[in-house]
Specification:
Helix content is about 40%, strand content about 20%. The chain is of the alpha/beta class and about 350 residues long. The protein has 2 domains: about 5-115, Enolase-like, N-terminal domain (Enolase-like, domain 1); about 120-335, Enolase-like C-terminal domain (TIM Barrel, Alpha-Beta Barrel), CATH 3.20.20. The strands form 2 sheets. An 8-stranded parallel β-sheet has the order 4-5-6-7-8-9-10-11. The chain has a 3-stranded antiparallel β-sheet with strand order 1-2-3. Helix 12 (about 290-300) links the parallel strand 10 (about 280-285) and strand 11 (about 305-310). Helix 1 crosses helix 3 and helix 2 (about 80-90) runs antiparallel to helix 3. The two termini are about 25 Å apart. The protein binds magnesium ion (MG). Magnesium ion binds near residues 186, 188, 213, 237 and 286.
Length: about 350
């Protein structure tokens, strides 16, 4: 079969400037990949490169010709394992670039079979956790407004970015604006181990559900220090990048937070989910600031998750792609058309 491939850089404006412990962004650069089977079917995928993991839109555009050459050489959109393996051998790292191709191929393969992606995997579309909606760091008044808007839009689970010198004020503001919401906290490596334990103690008093990445990923002993003393469950995100990290963090987190843009594709994400379970961990799937070109595919993994944080497209002012309906935080997979539902 002759597969045709193309890619295109897209600049996605955010609804609000998005600030986390590491910095602020107002637009996200994604790269959209399309793979066509020459018989009228096209699969779409997206790369949301993160400089934190060594990628930019430039690096994605630089390696995509090599990755798409692998796709064209194999020539079979259903040979998903083989293509993902060869892509890894070809460019080694570059997970967002590989993920864009992986998603486009899965979309195309499922479309050719006439089924939504979850069905290709035999998953139950009704067994999905709700996605959280993220409130970035801002001044208290803006955070209150964003929180009230999220509650009004029906999102019952909020994720709050911390890692500042006014963390308590931010949490108080959010709790006050959303007394009934489930609240999760993400420090994005912003605390020292002792600070993290102290903050987890008072965060427990605010009814926070769990705390994500309290300390820097390279501080493995610090993560264990927090895990052993925190009254709240701990999730690893920056500490949990690829499959080999899962056994390494299994004795120092409760929850493994995976992302397609860290692990490099849908098949690798599924291997990570099963490996995390084998180590007794709960599983969360997160995202970057991403278009539905990639988020839609991530939504199809939802039946395998305990927690979902798939709001990347909800934070955009405008997304050229529609995806799986996430109104009110419900991941409505059962309504999904063939493929990933990105269109
Ligand atoms: Mg995180």
């Amino acid at each position: 079969m002759t597969l045709e491939t193309e890619f295109e850089r897209v600049t996605l404006p955010l609804e609000h400037d998005f600030t986390i412990a590491r910095g602020t962004m107002s637009t996200a650069e994604n790269v959209v990949v399309r793979v066509s089977d020459g018989a009228g079917m096209t699969g779409v995928g997206g790369a949301a490169p993160s400089p934190h993991y060594g990628e930019t839109a430039d690096t994605v555009e630089a390696v995509l010709p090599d990755l798409l050459a692998v796709v064209e050489r194999v020539g079979d959109p259903h040979a998903l394992d083989r293509i993902e393996r060869r892509m890894r051998e070809t460019v080694n790292d570059n997970p967002a670039a590989r993920s864009a191709v992986s998603v486009a191929l899965h979309d195309l393969a499922a479309k050719r079979l006439g089924v939504p992606l979850y069905r290709l995997w035999g998953l139950d579309p009704t067994e999905t956790p709700k996605t959280s909606f993220t409130i970035g760091i801002d001044d208290p008044e803006t955070m209150r407004e964003k929180t009230e808007a999220a509650v009004d839009a029906g999102y019952p689970v909020l994720k709050v970015k911390l890692g500042t010198d006014r963390d308590r004020e931010l949490v108080e503001t959010i709790r006050d604006a959303a007394p009934d919401a489930t609240v999760r906290v993400d420090a994005n490596e912003g605390w020292t181990p002792r600070e993290a334990v102290r903050k987890c103690e008072w965060l427990a008093d605010y009814g926070v559900e769990f705390v994500e990445q309290p300390v820097p990923a390279e501080n493995r002993e610090g993560l264990q220090f927090v895990y052993e003393r925190s009254p709240l469950p701990i999730a690893g995100d920056e500490s949990c990048v690829t499959l080999k990290d899962v056994p390494q963090i299994a004795d120092r987190v409760d929850i493994a937070n995976l992302k397609l843009m860290k692990c490099g594709g849908l098949r690798e994400a599924r291997r990570m989910i099963h490996t995390a379970r084998a180590h007794g961990l709960e599983v969360m799937l997160g995202c970057m600031i991403e278009s539905n070109a990639s988020i839609a595919a991530a939504c199809h993994l939802a039946p395998l998750l305990d927690y979902a944080d798939l709001d990347g497209s909800l934070l955009l002012a405008d997304d050229a792609y529609e995806g799986v309906d996430l109104t009110g935080g419900d991941i409505r997979l059962a309504d999904s058309p063939a493929g990933t539902g990105a269109r």
